[in-house]
Amino acid sequence: MSHANEDNAAVSAAPIVVATDFSDGAAVAVERAAALAGKLQTSLHVLHVFNDGIWATLANLYDTAHWQGGDPVLATRRRLSDLVADLAARHGIAAFADSATGGAAKEISRLVQDKGARLLVIGKQGEHWIADAVLGETALKLVKSAEVPVLVARDKPRREMQRILVATDYSDNALRAAKIAHELFPTAQARLLNAFTVPFEGRMRLAGATDDDIESYRVIERSRAEQGMRYFVAKLDGGSGFSTTVTHGHPASAVLEAAAIDVDLVVVGRHGGSTAEERLLGSVTRNVLYHAVCDVLLVP
After folding, report:
1. Residue 6 has what pLDDT?
2. Is the model's pLDDT at 232 over the cut of 90?
3. Mean pLDDT along residues 226-250
4. Cα separation of 120 and 109, whole Å?
5. What does the pLDDT look like over 102-123, one tens digit per residue?
6. Count of beta carbons in the 10 Å neighbourhood of residue 155
7. What pLDDT is recorded for position 255?
8. How crowded is residue 277: how many other Cβ atoms within 10 Å of its Cβ?
9. Are strands 242-248 and 189-196 parallel, antiparallel or unpaired?
10. Domains of the chain
11. How far, in Å, CA of 69 to CA of 72, rounded?
């Protein structure tokens, strides 16, 4: 089922997929995805995953026979069709209604793969993603399984994406994340952020290192981080359009502090290093997902 504004809509071979359960959080994601599809002149697939187990549970708990909605599957499909028609008309895009039955993450990933999507958009909270912690786990699972960037829409758009913060550890994946962010939001002001630390500062102090010793080591690490940033920027076709910040501190804290100051989107890529580093990135990513006040783009 599809709806399109034939005069203005351009269908791309790499569409955007957005998942909805018709909650307030999902509505934010749907609007963000539709607006982005219009900007990028690509098509949009709106997916609802129907969980018949929920209706069976409700029927066991309450008297639902008197409800006037009729078949919940048909009612949901009608609502989805109406939503897609509205999006197509308002945003001038080719919009398609998709529905499935089963587990949300599995079915979302399946549609993303089947359609060759360039981006998946999800909301910050829905009827099945009750807490931020659950959303974080779901988002990470989708990043891993879908193998496409996942945009987590956290709040109603107050403006177009104007200021983007890209967290970088100088890995190849961070490079890919920066490039994808620029492709999706080419007119936005993008800033690269690297947070560095001195390994084992606490143990150094226990072993007798003074504040001056620690500060000298921080100077060394800052120099290394700044050199790494220069190399990284050079790989971004000269870094056109990117400003840079190198700061001392834990990556998650540094990203969240920077993101709290007039940032519309935080971009985080999966770490390309060792297993231990992968676990660390998981911690950073979860912290950003849980606490960022703006949208978050996760790049696998």
Report:
1. 42
2. yes
3. 88
4. 9
5. 878 888 889 999 999 999 998 8
6. 13
7. 93
8. 13
9. parallel
10. 2-153 (3.40.50.620), 163-299 (3.40.50.620)
11. 7
The residue ranges of DSSP E strands in the chain, in sequence order, are 2-4, 16-19, 44-50, 94-101, 119-123, 150-153, 163-167, 189-196, 242-248, 265-269, 295-299
φ and ψ at residue 263, rounded to 5 degrees: -120, 135
pLDDT at residue 134, as a whole number: 43
Given this model, what pLDDT does residue 222 score? 93
Amino acid at 288: V
Q: Range with the lowest mean pLDDT among 170-174, 221-225, 285-289?
A: 285-289
User: Please, what is the end-to-end C-alpha distance for the chain in angstroms?
Assistant: 30
The three-class DSSP label of residue 76 is helix
What is this structure's pTM? 0.82
| Measured distance CA(113)–CA(116) in Å, rounded | 5
CA distance 259 to 256: 5
CB 128 within 8 A of CB 50: no
Res 160 pLDDT > 80: no
Measured CA to CA, the distance from residue 288 to residue 256 in angstroms comes to 7
Helix (H, G, I), strand (E, B) or coil at 267: strand
Question: What backbone torsions phi and psi does residue 83 show, to the nearest 5 degrees?
Answer: -60, -45
